[in-house]
Amino acid sequence: MRVRISIVLAALAVSLVLPAAVGARSNAAAQAASAADAAVLAYWTPARIANAKWKSYVRDEKGQFKPYARPGGSGGAVTGASWAGGGDIQNRSGRILFSSGGSDWICSGSVVNDGSGAGAVILTAGHCVFDGADGWSYNFLYMPNFDAEPNYDCATRNLGCWRADRLVANKAFVDGGGFGTNATVAVDYGLAHVGARLNGSTQVDGLYGGYAINTTALNNSATQWAFGYPAAGRYKGKDLIYCMGSTIADPNGANTWGVACNMNGGASGGPWITGTTDPHVATTATKLSSVNSYGYSGLTYMFGPKLDGTTVTVAGDASDGTQTNGTDYVCTVATTENTSCPG
Predict the structure, then answer these.
(1) Binning pLDDT at 50, 70 and 90, where does residue 11 land?
(2) Measured distance CA(312)–CA(293) in Å, rounded
(3) Secondary structure element (H or E) that encloses residue 163, with its range
(4) What DSSP element (H or E) covers 274?
(5) Domains detected in the chain
(6) What is the C-alpha separation between 236 and 202, in angstroms, rounded?
(7) What are the strands of the beta sheet with 299-305, ordered from one edge?
(8) H or E stretch including 88?
(9) Quick check: 180 and 199 in contact, CB under 8 A?
(10) How far from chain centre, in Å, is Cα 128?
(11) Which of 166, 124, 125, 127 is nearest to 144 (CA)?
């Protein structure tokens, strides 16, 4: 009995000390997050933003992947037009800035409905969060509804900016060396967890909500909508562009699908949605089905991975920071590359 009492007293002593310890850790974490926010804000000077390049790829006639040049011609229902409908799709998608390998880049992304209430999750392309040669991205910022406010200055931007504090990619994408093979493009999606608005407290998914991820198999006859912020050629990166139509299989056998589309550099990571005829109004049937991943030289199609139940798991790990062994890698990020992360 004496032993039992000692154990109870010891447990009680721990419980009395624990709140102060938790409070100290919480304050330290908040201070670290605030410092990282300030550092990322300071990093993105007008000069760096102006020199940021698009992180996009095309396949040539031999099926080889290379950095984006310029796609050629084909047909489709809507192969690239300015989205004038506003609404949910415009509010739930946006521009991404990030650093990788000592250079600065742009991609597109969208908000996932993670249901956590603690931070938010942004879906983009895998090659926007991890590169086989350069490692994990950093200085990662998400700017919602860039079409309505094409302003990179987070200090003055009414619609705000959100910094990623962790990135998650499919394990097969990282282990395969990142973008560049049939196996890795099939899982070319990445998730970013963002905290509260920089210089604020709002969660980005608390503004306009987010999309669920589709897990139902879709036929190529199903209509899909692709959105993004292309910045090459006739596109300037400030206008939300969309493509819409049925899909085709990748000509070189990758487990991806393509929609007729002339979007180009800067559109990578932009969302595909399905289950709707009117993207400006989201319903429970409107779900994320893919992201802009790559095009083909000589073929006006945008290809992307087929999102599924594994993608849902990866998104959940982005939300709570828990890594699922055999499925994904979780990497804490801030203002420099985290070289301790896998890959």
Answers:
(1) very low
(2) 18
(3) strand 162-170
(4) strand 271-274
(5) 46-332 (2.40.10.10)
(6) 29
(7) 65-67, 57-59, 294-296, 299-305, 256-260, 247-249
(8) helix 87-91
(9) no
(10) 7
(11) 124
Residue-wise pLDDT tens digits, 177-193: 999 999 999 999 999 99
Instruction: At 24, list the tokens.
Output: 């100290």
Arithmetic mean of pLDDT, 281-308: 95
pLDDT at 341 exceeding the cut of 90: yes
Q: What is the number of other CB atoms lying within 10 angstroms of the CB of residue 29?
A: 10
Sign of the C-alpha dihedral, residues 123, 320, 325, 100?
positive
Per-residue confidence (pLDDT) for residue 13, from 0 to 100? 30
Query: What's the whole-model pTM score?
Result: 0.89
pLDDT in tens, 186-220: 999 999 999 999 988 899 999 999 999 999 999 99
For the residues 267-296, what does the mean pLDDT come to?
97
Q: Report the DSSP beta bridge partners of residue 330.
A: 168
Classify burial at 285, counting beta carbons within 10 Å of its beta carbon; exposed 0-12, middle 13-18, buried 19 or more: exposed
Residue 29's pLDDT is: 74
Give Dmax over CA atoms of the chain in angstroms.
84
Cβ atoms < 10 Å from Cβ of 62: 6
At 175, list the tokens: 């282990």
Rounded Cα–Cα distance for residues 166 and 305 (Å): 22
